[in-house]
Amino acid sequence: MADTSSYHLAAQHLLVPGHGVAGIPHLDAFLPEVPQIERRRWPSANTDAVAGWGHKPTARRARAIAARKGLPYIALEDGFLRSIGLGEAGVPPLSMVVDDIGIYYDARSPSRIETLLEDGRWKTPELLARAEKAMQNIAEYGLSKTNAAPRLDHHALQAAKKRRVLVVDQTHGDESITGGLADTERFAKMLEVARRDEPDAEIIVRRHPAVAAGLKKGCIPEEALSGVTLLDSEARATDILAQVDAVYCVTSLMGFEALMLGKPVRCFGMPFYAGWGATRDEVRCKRRTAKRSIQEIFAAAYILYSRYVDPISGAPTTLEATIERLHDWRRVADSNTGHFAAIGFTPWKRAAVRNMLAGPRSSVRFHRSVRSAEKDARACDMGKILIWSGKEDAEKRAQLGRSSVPVWRMEDGFLRSRGLGSDFHLPASVVIDDRGMYFDRHSSSRLEMILESLSIPPELTERAARLRAELVAAGVSKYNVGGAANIDAPDGKRVIVVVGQVEDDRSIERGTADINTNLGLLKAVRADYPDAHIVYKPHPDVETGNRAGKIPVAECSAIADKIVDGANIDACIAACDSLATMTSLAGFEALMRGKTVLTYGGPFYAGWGLTEDRLTFDRRSRKLTLDALVAGTLIVYPRYIHPPTRLPCTPEEIAAWLSVDAPAPGHKRLRWLRALWASISGARPVRY
530 and 629, same structural domain? Predict the structure, then answer.
């Protein structure tokens, strides 16, 4: 479902002459009603409209072509919920406004949003209720146009002792200032009025961080700033607004964000939200005669005027979906904040690691030794060591244990790829753990903490149930390789699938006790269930010869009733009554499919009352439902990257991607070509 704009362009052949605008990802989805977008320098014989970037200087050529040819000019601009990072950094927009009359920040002439607000016939109770809910979510999530800024440092402002008034400065040359019927001098006047009308208040001047750094010039003169509290650091607008009682602005979007939080706003210019009775205005616009509520202004601006595109599917989407996307993305960006000194990552994995850790305030540097990584982490703000858990041998573990630098560990996630890691298929998900690692039964992990203590609301449990149903219906597993399983079970016999593993894997080293080999597991299951029909399923990495753990056929056949080579694990689970494992993820996949799971080691899903366990788990005292386990394991704990776009995404989107186009078995030469390509491509992390 996508939002339907209150207006449609009549253009059939829209010329977009600027390289920057023409190169915006998913431009066609932002303009679905236009059959032909002409990405060229000059109009064709069929061109019937011209588009450019708002009323900015970069649009002069597009506007000149439109004027010379007598064609309509269509102004495109970033929407009010744009992205995490900045457009100046090359981050593509999730929202856009399309204006066939003017542009929202230029009150010198009418615009489509002004026409909408003046008319008002679009109002319905349902639309306004939708606007109110969206405003609540934006406020709760602390979202803005861009969302790279950190939380407000508690040292930035002292505890309030009296009324606080925020005065919002803007950067010199901001097009919205002149477009908003103001000028640079208006800012000094605004500060003067704030001092005069609020003599007992603390006046806080919010300057753009680039102004404080000397990279840009502000509009409030330096000599006018004596006696005020300067707030120059990067911080979320909602955090700043929560600390003040009133807001003075010229045309900044922060004024409307203040209105959404219930703050009184005094405008010294004419932004799109002024002139409708929701603000106290020092400037008048005779065209604006209607009285509009904040909900009505929001509905017009964010729902009817703005358009949204889903960055994963590339299709038009809704305001609500964009709000949730930005909320999810900022959680990822926040968790990625800081510098990562990474060790244990082979060259072919590094591009994927950069994307998993991408963010506007993150950086990654790869090292060969703990000593080098520790030195790097100490030298950087919020530095930490990140190690690929499979490379953490006893020596490295001892070195890391002696370090005072925070240590995080990374490992493949549970919905990994369309092929084996040992065949150099990059992961679509990873887990990053700042406490331990989920497969290490000897110490606590972030996943164990989530499952033991997280309050899981009903909506998250319901989401987990839907995700589980999708995964089971699509037959999705960790690697998604293999074919049908021929079990050949006699009637009436209990069928137990015994899942083999890579024997030198870290999950075997850290997650098992007395039974720690595939042969040992097979013998233990036969001893415990002498009358069962036992089917042995080797690990696909072992089958291909890439990893250790092969049982000689004669030994295996003497214990197991059947060996299934090349079978898909989902097919094996479907054909069995029970699944036996040391620590394999297949046990979790079997639980999701309603099978009995017998654990002979300490996997993350054991000890919660859902499995039959040989070992005991003293730290795991909670009894979980299956969907609570799924919620913590597949939704809360991992991180996901959509391989085609390299963007952060949801487990549902990865499930959809994994459910189609599984790769055919590749030649060994293709395997190494895949590794080479992964090593040399994607050096720059994705920007969002």
Answer: yes
Statement to judge: residues 251 and 332 lie in one domain = no
- Residue 232 lies inside a defined structural domain of this protein: yes
- Tell me phi and psi for residue 140, to 5 degrees: -65, -40
Residue 309 lies in a domain: no
Has residue 37 got a pLDDT over 60? Answer: yes
**Residue 164 and residue 244: Cα distance in Å, rounded?**
5
Last residue of a domain, one of 119, 151, 185: 119
Same domain flag for 425 and 487: no
Distance between CA atoms of residues 560 and 684, nearest Å: 49
Per the CB < 8 A criterion, the answer to whether 385 and 373 are in contact is yes
Backbone phi and psi for residue 260, each to the nearest 5 degrees, phi listed first: -65, -25
Check pLDDT > 60 for residue 378: yes
The CATH number assigned to the domain holding 513 equals: 3.40.50
pLDDT in tens, 202-227: 999 999 878 877 888 999 999 999 99
Res. 421: pLDDT tops 60 = no
**pTM (predicted TM-score):** 0.91
3-state secondary structure of 332: helix
CA 653, 659, 660, 666 torsion-angle sign: positive
What is the domain extent for residue 184?
142-271
Whether 131 maps to a domain, the answer reads: no
Q: Is 685 helix (H, G, I), strand (E, B) or coil?
A: coil
Average pLDDT over residues 49-70: 95
| pLDDT tens column, 293-342 | 999 999 999 999 999 999 999 999 999 999 999 999 999 999 999 999 99
Domain match, 488 and 631 both: yes
- CB–CB of 374/403 below 8 Å? yes
Please tell me the chain's helix, strand, coil percentages from 3-state DSSP, rounded to the nearest 5: 35, 15, 50
What residues are paired with 410 via a beta bridge?
388, 432
- Label residue 50 by pLDDT band (50, 70, 90): very high
Residue 356: per-residue pLDDT: 94
Do residues 342 and 439 share a domain?
yes
Residue 404 has pLDDT above 80, yes or no: yes
Q: What's the rounded Cα separation, in Å, for the pair 666 and 661?
A: 14
R_g over Cα of the chain: 30
Same structural domain, 497 and 616 = yes
What was the pLDDT predicted at 607?
98
Q: Are both 151 and 266 inside the same structural domain?
A: yes
How many whole angstroms separate alpha carbon 478 and alpha carbon 412? 9
Tell me, yes or no, whether 175 lies in a domain. Answer: yes
Is the distance from CB of 539 to CB of 517 less than 8 angstroms? no
Q: Which residues contact 44 (CB under 8 A, 6 or more apart)?
A: 13, 15, 38
- C-alpha dihedral over 595, 596, 599, 604, to 10 degrees? 50
Domain count, the chain: 4
Q: Are residues 574 and 617 in the same domain?
A: yes
Strands (DSSP E) contained in 520-571 are 533-537, 562-563
Q: How far apart are CA 111 and CA 287, in angstroms?
A: 11
Structure confidence at residue 480 as a pLDDT band (50, 70, 90)? low
